[in-house]
Specification:
The protein is 26% helix and 40% strand. The chain is built from 4 helices and 9 strands. Strands 1-2-3-4-5-6-7-8 form an 8-stranded antiparallel β-barrel. The N and C termini lie far apart (78 Å). The protein is an alpha+beta fold. Its main location: secreted. This is Apolipoprotein M.
Length: 187
């Protein structure tokens, strides 16, 4: 009887310690990813943040496409975000500084976004953690991006586990049937 009780207690003890280890792996930033790793087109699949405030902005869009391209400066990446709202594609082009495994963007109003790529087992996905500093307020968001425009259920479950580890609400998941915009505005 005592042996069975000890086994139960030990198994509960090991389970209680495995969750932090799983979260540590899921929230671990990638070590200095190559800019070539992010180059190209990425569709926003899902997004959540620490307060649930960015959800409203993302829900208004039919789709969001991100394009990354390397610049001649090894410490910069060109970034174009294209949001489709109805039949209109809104393009925003920015340059992002790269410092090791951290991406930094600052605007003229002293707002900033600092990002890093997190672990994902999905071979053609990115999980991006962005810390937004807007007028003295800090919002942390996690986004799941994919080259395919959709992900497998197990890949979405992994992302949901990352959100749970971060104590974030369930993500807003985009509709994969919505058309993505091209990188360059149509004339």
């Amino acid at each position: 009887m005592f042996a069975a009780f000890a086994v139960v207690i030990l198994s509960l003890f090991s389970l209680s310690h495995s969750t932090p280890l799983v979260c540590e792996k899921l929230l671990h930033p990638l070590e200095s990813p190559s800019p070539r790793h992010v180059e190209g087109r990425w569709a926003l699949i899902a997004n959540s943040d620490s307060y649930g405030v960015t959800r409203n902005f993302i829900e208004r869009r039919d789709s969001t496409t991100l394009y990354f391209s390397n610049s001649s400066d090894p410490y910069m990446i060109s970034f174009t975000q294209v949001n489709r709202i109805g039949n209109v594609c809104q393009h925003e082009h920015l340059n992002i500084s790269v410092d090791g495994n951290v991406f930094v963007l600052r605007d003229a109003n002293k707002n900033s976004a600092t990002g890093s790529l997190l672990y994902t087992s999905c071979p053609d996905c990115l999980v991006v953690k962005v810390v937004l500093e807007i007028q003295g307020n800090q919002i942390v968001q996690l986004s799941l991006l994919s080259r395919r425009g959709t992900v497998e259920p197990k890949e979405m479950e992994e992302f949901r586990a990352q959100l749970k580890c971060s104590s974030f609400p369930l993500p807003f998941v985009t509709d994969p049937t919505k058309e993505l915009c091209s990188e360059h505005p149509q004339s």
